Write the structure tokens for this entry.
Amino acid sequence: MITVTSADGTDVRALDAGRGPAVLVLGPGLDDGSAWRKVGERLAPRFRVVRLHRRRYRLDLGGPPCTIAQEVEDVLAVATAIGGPVLVVGHSSGAVVALEAMAASPSAFAGAVLYEPPSPAASSPWGEPIERAQAALAAGRPGKALEIFVRDIVRLSAGQARLIGLFVAVHPRMRALVPGQIEDALAIHRLGDRLDAYAMIETPTVLLGGDRSPAHLGDRLDVLARTMPNTVRVVLHGQGHSAHVKAPADVVDVVAALAVKVLR
């Protein structure tokens, strides 16, 4: 574990394993810091793997919701503590934070792997479903709030969303993380169109997706590929949005291939 201080004085925590060139992992929504454990364990024999526990999902912090700008400050604080440009790996909303960090401080990053960021690079008509999810939270129904998020924002099927909502409803720790997930979606929605900023990112970047993921995630990757000047599009066949759990070796291959090119 490493702990550093962010620009606003908040302590930032990250799991630190392995030795060698540094890979900084920014996990997805609902991540208590463990989501990318399988990938991290496979990378650690060759690389130093630092998995950030995003403050939005730190139950010990409490307080008001954080902004993406604050999350970016956390990322940059950890990158500075590691020393030297790092390879950043971002997944889902964590990949949006990675994009914003690269736009804010390009010299901090030698390369990036962005796994299906729900970036505002494409239209994000999320306002109304976010309001319904917030209303469900206010009514004490976090399972229903996540069902709305998964069905109407992630765009999984109604049946899948219902099952996920039922699972969360009986899982205390997951219930506690749901408000952070809804805040995460709202923060991304408020970013608006950031294509002009992303067009300035020259960091070598792999845009990673699965051919079984919701179609809008692939569409967003296509927009980023047309916008960012130094990208490669990689598709994981037979995988969706959770290849870090279901096919970690495939994800490791993608990360390691870029790491050996850009890290010294």
